[in-house]
Structures are given as C-alpha cells and as structure tokens.
Specification:
Elements: E1 11-12, E2 15-16, E3 18-20, E4 23-25, E5 32-36, E6 43-48, H1 52-69, H2 74-90, H3 92-103, H4 107-131, E7 136-139, E8 150-158, E9 161-165, H5 173-184, E10 188-191, H6 198-211, E11 218-220, H7 225-233, E12 240-244, H8 248-255, E13 261-264, E14 270-273, H9 279-291, E15 303-307, H10 308-322, H11 342-357, E16 361-362, E17 368-369, E18 372-373, E19 376-379, E20 396-402, H12 405-414, E21 417-418, E22 420-424, H13 428-437, E23 442-445, E24 458-459, E25 461-462, E26 465-466, E27 468-469, H14 471-477, E28 479-487
Parallel strand pairs: 2-6, 9-10, 9-12, 10-11, 12-13, 14-15, 14-22, 15-20, 19-20, 22-23
Antiparallel strand pairs: 1-2, 3-4, 5-6, 7-8, 8-28, 13-26, 16-19, 17-18, 21-25, 24-27
Helix pairs in contact: 2-4, 2-6, 3-4, 3-6, 4-5, 5-14, 9-10
The protein binds glyceraldehyde-3-phosphate.
C-alpha cells in the first residue's frame, strides 16, 4: 500500500517527504503541494514544497557524493542497480497504486510501467558494464606528418550532477530511464518529479534508497515549478539535464548553461495509410496507438493521413474498434480514463469545438464528465483546423483524407514536431522511401509509434527535442571522453 508498511518512512502525517543526503525530510518551508486525483478531482496526496536553500544543499551533497561514486568500480555500481531493480519490481503493487491515483493510469498499465522500469534499470546496468568497460586506442601515424610517437587512450568519464525531470505520463519509467544511465556512468542524480506523479516517483526513489546507494548520490526534490523550477535548471551545480515534457523544455534549453541537454518534447505523430495497407492491422494499430492511456503519450498516433480510396473502409473499422473501448475509472482498468487535469480536459475540448465549428465529421458524439472524455474520432479534418496540427494529449484522433503519398508526407513534414511517424503498406520499397522522406526521429513500418523496446534509440527532430535516448544513447550522453596520450621519445616501430 502507498505510504504504508515499508514505505512508512517517506510520509509525515499526510505529506510525503522529500529525499536528500540519504534521508527523508520535511521542508523548512512548512508548505505542501496538493496532488489532485484526476478521477475524483479531490486532493489525493501532498508533497513537500522544497525551498531554494534546500535545493542548494541537495546540489552540494550531490557534488560531493559523485566524486567517490565515480571511483566506485563499475561492477559495484551495476550490482547496486540490479538490487534496486529487484526491489522496484517487488514493490510494483504499491507503486502502481500511486500511478492509478495520481495520474489515472489504468491499473494493469500501471503495473506494466513499474515492471518495465525494473527491466530498464537491469538492462542499463548490463549495458553500462559492457560499453563503459571499453575505450579507444589510437596511434598517431595515421594522420599526415606524424610518426608513431603518440598512443592515445580514450575512455568515458562521468559529467558530474545530472538533473532529471520526467513528465506526468511516465513518472516512474521516464525517471528511471534517466536515473539508471546517470548512475551507471558514475554521475550523481537529482530528480525533480512532475507534481502529478511525484508520489509514485518518491516510492520508486525509496526502492533505490533500500538498495543502499551512498548518501547524497540520489536526491528527489518536490515543489512548485515557480519556486524551484528555474532555480534547478539554471543551478551552477548541474552538469547535464535530461528532460521530458512540453514546451517548457524549449525555455529550459534557452536558459541552461553550457551543459549537455537531452530533451523529448512531444510529437504530432502521423500515420500514413496507403491503398494497399492491411486495413485490419492498420485499424488495430490506430486504436492502440491513438487511445492507449487516453492518448496521453508523446508517441501516440496524433493524426491519420489516409488515401481517399480506402478512407471509408478504414474509418468504419476504426469506429467499430473505438466502440469497444471501455470508459471509466483507472481502478477498473478501463481503456479510457480521466485525463490528468481539468485544464488538459479544457484544452482538448477547445480543439474539439474548433473542429466542430469548422465542419469535421464526428464519428461519435462528444461526451465529457469532469476530466473524463469519451474516445472521439474526427473524420474529414482539414488543415485549417487546430486539431490537424496541435497535440491534444487526450482521446481525440483526427483523420485527414489524402489523394497522394506526397500530400501525406507534406503534412507530416509541415509540423513543428518530428518525433515519430508510421506508414502502413504491403510494399516495403515504398515504405522505405516514405520513411526516408518523413522528417521524424523514427518511422515505424506497419506498427504504431512507440518508444520501446527501451534499448532502441529514441529521438525527435525539430521541436520534438534534442539528443537521443534509449539505454545505450543515454549512457553515452551522460559521459564525456577523456584521453591520455603516451608520448614516446622515438617512433615505436623503429626498433629491431
Ligand atoms: O510520452 C512519451 C513517452 O516517451 C512515450 O513512451 O511509446 O512507451 O508510450 P511509449
């Protein structure tokens, strides 16, 4: 149970503590931040409203702990990560319960998120041992004008303190996807969880605490973005930021110092459907891709671009599947659950009303109760409608009919986003050509967009972000190259 049993240490009264210097603490601010349950729209949990002074202390501790962590053998770092992964999986039920209450994630998906996170941590430990255990050896005489008098040995060293800021939709998984690579690479880690999702994140951090990482190496500060958001991202003690979220990332990138940034800032993933597509497979993927977790995924299918000749048939198949989606509470594991906040629901409704005024065809009646929005397919969407371009982050999916593949590619590439896209066709040659033409970080052929498996590279072009994620890329991104050059008095191949 959340905040009970082994987790009792992390709660004081009804307010969850923050984690600093290996201890669970109350903020000196005496203030807390409420977390509203999207389903009941009542306060479910409260977390500490940390102060800037507390952030300063966390940064000092992180810096000190990192120095000795970087000297801890790689295999020992991996061992602790494996331990944390196992503890995390053991406590999947309690953590999943928080995900259900804080972000209305359907019960089964919530458990999957925690298990996936444990697997991600273990895989990262293994990958780190492999790739960080290798370096490069160069000799000087391959460059013009040089004899073989220099041997260069290069290896990967940590950056220092990594600041991790995950989003509400995967507060555990997109936290560990930053924490594990940072730690295996020898960095310390400061986590600023999203408000909605903070309690799930604190439970997850407690699992790392139980695993026995050194004091100060991992911290988790909670609070208002207005008080500690900019303070954290502009803090001189931070050596790298890994952020997943919305346009705030663009603002962070303008304010952050000369440090590596890894950012994933959303997408408007297009699904291009050709005449020869397997329409049953396509419809199944559109429904899974567009409506899983009520469309609150960066990688959700966010616009269907279908050839006019098969559009009626495809829309009918999608409509039939949408009719089967269950709508209700996350506790009952419904497919469609309330969206995260009332303001998100209002934003989604604004997009729907705009499409209505401009003449989109509603395949279902629009229905909303509180934060719960029934799944909606909008047909005959045109480029003058906001929903053609903006990401609803909700269970509303626009369909645009196209008369040529070029028209589809043009719409996809005119977006300011470029995260993923997908194409459905039986012609692999066409699929590859379309993939090359789509300006997105990934193109899926005959499947909906998705980040996983978690060791695959994951990146966005344009406003969708910078840097590449996925386990190997994240480890590499959280290191820098250090070289040692051995200078010989004479070329090494002259003896004998
Ligand atoms: O929301 C952004 C996530 O990176 C999407 O991950 O494809 O596993 O749902 P997912």
């Amino acid at each position: 149970m959340a905040g009970k049993g082994v987790f009792e240490e992390i709660i004081d009264g009804d307010v969850y503590k923050y984690y600093a210097d290996g201890e669970w603490k109350k903020s000196a601010s005496g203030k807390s931040v409420p977390i509203i349950n999207p389903t009941t729209r009542k306060t479910q949990y409260k977390v500490q409203a940390c102060t800037q002074e507390e952030v300063n202390k966390v940064m000092e501790a992180a810096k000190a702990a990192q120095k000795s962590w970087a000297r801890t053998p790689l295999w020992k770092r991996a061992e602790l990560l494996h331990k944390a992964a196992a503890i995390l999986k053991d406590h999947r039920a309690s953590i999943a319960e928080c995900l259900v209450k804080e972000i209305a994630k359907p019960a089964k998906d919530a458990v999957t998120e925690v298990v996936r996170s444990g697997d991600l941590v273990s895989y990262t430990a293994e990958e780190g041992v492999r790739i960080l255990g290798e370096g490069k050896f160069l000799v000087s005489d391959s460059f013009p004008g040089n004899e073989r008098t220099k041997y260069c040995l290069s290896s990967k060293i940590p950056l220092g303190v990594v600041l991790a800021i995950p989003p509400f939709n995967y507060p555990v998984n997109l936290a560990v996807s930053k924490i594990a690579p940072a730690l295996i690479a020898g960095n310390s880690l400061v986590l600023k969880p999203p408000t909605q999702g903070a309690v799930s994140a604190l439970h997850m951090i407690y699992c790392f605490h139980l695993a026995g990482f050194p004091k100060g190496l991992i911290s988790c500060v909670t609070g208002k973005g207005s008080e500690i958001g900019d303070f954290l991202t502009m803090h001189p003690g931070v050596n790298c930021i890994s952020f997943t979220g919305g346009d705030t990332g663009i603002a962070i990138s303008k304010k952050a110092g000369m440090i590596p940034l890894q950012m994933e800032l959303g997408g408007k993933d297009a699904c291009i459907v050709l005449e020869d597509a397997d329409l049953d497979l396509t419809a199944a993927n559109i429904v899974k891709g567009g409506f899983s977790y009520s469309g609150q995924r960066c990688t959700a299918v966010k616009v269907v671009l279908v050839m006019e000749s098969v559009a009626d048939a495809l829309v009918d198949k999608v409509k039939a599947k949408v009719a089967k989606l269950t709508v209700g509470s996350p506790e009952e594991d419904c497919d469609i659950t309330p969206v995260v906040t009332e303001s998100s629901a209002n934003f989604i409704e604004g997009l729907v009303m705009d499409a209505k005024e401009k003449g989109a065809t509603f395949c279902q009646e629009y229905r909303r109760e509180g934060n719960l929005i029934w799944p909606l397919l909008l047909d005959h969407v045109r480029p003058d409608m906001r929903i053609a371009w903006e990401e609803p982050f909700g269970p509303v999916l626009p369909v645009m009919r196209i008369n040529s593949v070029e028209e589809g590619i043009h719409h996809c590439n005119a977006s300011n986003f470029g995260l993923q896209g997908c194409v459905f066709t039986r012609d692999i040659n066409k699929a590859l050509m379309i993939s090359d033409a789509m300006e997105t970080g990934t193109v899926q052929i005959n499947s909906a967009p998705a980040r996983g498996p978690d060791h695959f590279p994951f990146q966005g072009l344009k406003d969708s972000g910078i840097g590449s994620q996925g386990i190997t890329n994240s480890i590499n991104m959280m290191t820098k190259i250090k070289s040692t050059v051995i200078n010989l008095p004479s070329p090494s191949y002259t003896m004998g």
